């Protein structure tokens, strides 16, 4: 997907164009001879600059791949945690006779069959409400994960608060409503960060492709120049390792 529309436009001719996260656009070499500085200019410094720029883009690409992988692991956990806290909040509101908002009503309609076996018969509303209040006051039975595929039955005493891991071996107790707001904000931020990371990866792939095309254009221009001067059998000296290149007569790049 092209990122040109979302990239930051340079305000002046001397300002480098970047994408919204500050990753610079790779310059495209339209006229090689003008770019390298003339027909007799040396190109080793130009090629070295291309290699360094490409290496920087590839380093950023690796970092963003790692970031994307971490986000893909965190987002499902955050969604599951938010779903559980919303259920606890809905359960407590129902037990206390408080009205549910639209999202909580939707959660109740979608998940009551899986998360709660309470009787919702319209003819027994009073009895069902009393039963819910008793279950909240007496705790909720659930399964506690000890290890992969290993669970133990546990009873949770509901207090209107929930503990959230904040990292660095730190857990903090939050009221249920505050926990929902915090998790919703964090989840929204993580999803936005993932979208931006994907966009940056696409942008980087474009810039790496441009640099590879630049490298090939300058290389082919140098081969053509040496052919015209009868110096084609001499090594071009373009290998990054410092080794002498072999005959470049058939080494032009597409």
From TrEMBL:
Residues 100-127 have a biased composition (Acidic residues). Residues 1-28, 93-136, 232-254 are annotated as: Disordered. The keyword Signal does not apply. InterPro entries: PFD3, Prefoldin, Prefoldin_subunit_alpha. Gene3D superfamilies: 1.10.287.370. GO terms for molecular function: tubulin binding. Residues 1-16 have a biased composition (Polar residues). Keywords: Chaperone. GO terms for cellular component: cytoplasm; prefoldin complex. GO terms for biological process: microtubule-based process; protein folding; tubulin complex assembly. Belongs to the prefoldin subunit alpha family. This is Prefoldin subunit 3. It comes from Kwoniella newhampshirensis.
């Amino acid at each position: 997907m092209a990122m040109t529309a979302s990239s930051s436009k340079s305000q002046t001719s001397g300002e480098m164009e970047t994408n919204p996260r500050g990753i610079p656009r790779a310059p495209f070499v339209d006229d090689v001879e003008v770019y390298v500085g003339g027909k007799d200019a040396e190109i080793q410094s130009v090629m070295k600059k291309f290699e360094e720029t490409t290496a920087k883009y590839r380093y950023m690409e690796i970092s963003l791949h790692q970031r994307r992988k971490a986000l893909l692991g965190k987002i499902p956990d955050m969604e599951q945690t938010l779903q559980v806290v919303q259920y606890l909040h809905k359960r407590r509101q129902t037990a206390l006779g408080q009205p549910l908002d639209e999202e909580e009503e939707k959660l109740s309609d979608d998940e009551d069959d899986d998360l709660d076996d309470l009787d919702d018969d319209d003819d027994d509303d009073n009895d069902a409400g009393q039963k819910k209040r008793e279950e909240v006051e007496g705790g909720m039975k659930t399964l506690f994960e000890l290890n992969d595929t290993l669970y133990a039955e546990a009873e949770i005493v509901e207090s209107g608060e929930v503990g959230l891991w904040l990292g660095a071996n730190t857990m903090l107790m939050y009221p249920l409503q505050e926990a929902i707001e915090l998790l919703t904000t964090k989840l929204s931020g993580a999803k936005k960060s993932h979208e931006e990371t994907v966009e940056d990866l696409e942008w980087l792939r474009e810039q790496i492709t441009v640099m590879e095309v630049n490298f090939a254009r300058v290389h082919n221009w140098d081969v053509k120049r040496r052919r015209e001067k009868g110096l084609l059998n001499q090594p071009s000296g373009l290998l990054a390792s410092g080794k002498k290149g072999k005959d470049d007569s058939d080494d032009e790049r597409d």
